[in-house]
Design a protein that fits this description.
10% of the residues lie in helices and 34% in strands. By secondary structure, the chain is mainly β. Bound molecules: zinc ion. Zinc ion is lined by residues 6, 8-9, 11, 18, 20-21, 23.
């Protein structure tokens, strides 16, 4: 199964729906990877408005 990324919250997952925001509009065309382990302490998480830990794509097309 290929990785998909949510266009709304940029979370990378393997399913057909985003496990975070339940969106079904997922893309397989993305670049960059941010692994957020501690959203509250992460500058990247703040910029990307990420509240849950996980793997996120930096850019989604
Ligand atoms: Zn999402």
């Amino acid at each position: 199964m290929s990785e998909k990324v949510c266009r709304d919250c940029h979370l990378i997952s393997y399913g057909h729906t985003c496990p975070s925001c339940k969106a079904i509009d997922l893309s397989d065309d993305f670049s960059g990877l941010a692994i957020i382990l501690a959203p509250k302490d992460s500058v990247i998480a703040k910029i990307m408005k990420i509240e849950k830990k996980g793997r996120y794509a930096l850019r989604v097309r």
